[in-house]
User: What shape does this take?
Amino acid sequence: MTVYFIGTGLIGGSAAIALRKRGFATRLIGFDTNYQHAEQALALGLVDEILLPNEAIKAADLVLLAVPVNAALELLPYILNLLKEDATVVDMGSTKNGICTEARFHRRRAQYVASHPMAGTEYSGPTAAADGLFDGKKAIVCEHRLSADFALNRALAMYRSLNMEVLFYTDAEAHDRHVAYVSHLSHVSSFMLGLTVLEVEKSEKYIFDLAGTGFESTVRLAKSSPATWTPIFLQNAASVSHALEKYIENLQRFKACIDAHNSDGIAALIAEANGIEKIIK
Assistant: This one.
């Protein structure tokens, strides 16, 4: 199996480590628009060689598109045009509706599998790549009925090699709506919490001396890459905006209880939020 990784950062690089280690891929080719990242991926042994897309796509059995979602949207038609007839392209972006719409009427749509591995960290670039990043996590596959059997089976075999559980979403729009709440909103919250604390720190220089593990775990996502998350928010703007409306509404409810010194109201909101334990153990 020859696998071509377009994007050699956290996601692409971590996939490369696991797919090589577990025998899924025998030849790993990489490409990154960031020249330094491409050189790092090669030096770290994540890939065997770096080749331009017009050279490597024609040789690949599987193309993994692990780039920011705006770049994936532009690249997918180009990749499909160059693929071998028995090859597959899998994108690994966090939004699916835009790219699925872009691909829907392409003559080679059947060779494309729309996916979203629900894994990551706040770090980016090839040096952030880690063995086991995907182990035990979930991967979403959208509009799987539009993919040819051979393409879907290859994508599923890859995710099995990554030790991931695959869930199927027929509706890409529903996927984006749901991840707006369970993924995208948490990043917005972390970014804005980090920004709020940084603004306070300008006048309260000792505030970070008080920061404990609770703060660190809550705000760690604020270190995530703007190049990755800005296009995600824009591609999923409607769903993220709706999620923010509900979140702001709940913040306002909590603030009203604080302002009124309403202990029963505060306790009730916290108890209601404790219901999340039914979902997250």
About this structure: DSSP finds eleven helices and eight strands in the chain. The CA atoms of residues 6 and 49 lie 12 Å apart.
